[in-house]
């Protein structure tokens, strides 16, 4: 396996990460994909200014990818917080060898994408729907005062 700086050598990755982290930036998400079907090198595939649904449009059923998204969560404008989500995407038709390599490489990706409240590893886009992601973020935040009488 190549060292982490080799698989993440694209300078645009670090800049996109900083853009997503920066509240004044319009960039709210990024997607990293492999340079080719046989490559272990990651490159910045896309960035966007929309929500997690827009990000999901970039994730193919036969692809492996890493994504990072800025998510606002709160009951109103006064309690709104910015949280970050790290996504390890393995489309349902992703090759078995790619999935196996990802278990090791995701640790290397986390050396660059370091700050997040929740990590989601999935092959199902339903787990990336805004309400599902917000529920995971609320659980990670602790107290949840807007769920009356419901159990997790």
UniProtKB/TrEMBL annotation:
Belongs to the actin-binding proteins ADF family. Coactosin subfamily. Residues 5-138 form the ADF-H domain. PANTHER family: ADF-H DOMAIN-CONTAINING PROTEIN, CORTACTIN AND DREBRIN. This is Actin depolymerizing protein. GO terms for biological process: regulation of actin filament polymerization. GO terms for molecular function: actin filament binding. The keyword Chaperone does not apply. It holds the Pfam family Cofilin_ADF.
């Amino acid at each position: 396996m190549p060292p982490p700086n080799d698989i993440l050598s694209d300078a645009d990755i670090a800049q996109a990460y900083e853009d997503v982290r920066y509240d004044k930036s319009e960039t709210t998400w990024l997607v990293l994909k492999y340079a080719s079907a046989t490559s272990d090198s990651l490159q910045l595939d896309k960035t966007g200014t929309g929500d997690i649904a827009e990000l999901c449009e970039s994730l193919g059923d036969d692809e492996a990818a890493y994504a990072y998204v800025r998510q606002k969560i709160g009951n109103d404008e006064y309690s709104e917080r910015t949280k970050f989500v790290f996504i390890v995407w393995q489309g349902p038709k992703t090759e078995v060898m790619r999935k196996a390599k990802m278990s090791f490489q995701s640790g290397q990706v986390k050396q660059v994408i370091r700050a997040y409240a929740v990590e989601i590893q999935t092959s199902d886009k339903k787990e990336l729907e805004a309400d599902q992601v917000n529920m995971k973020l609320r659980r990670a935040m602790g107290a949840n005062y807007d769920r009356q009488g419901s159990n997790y």
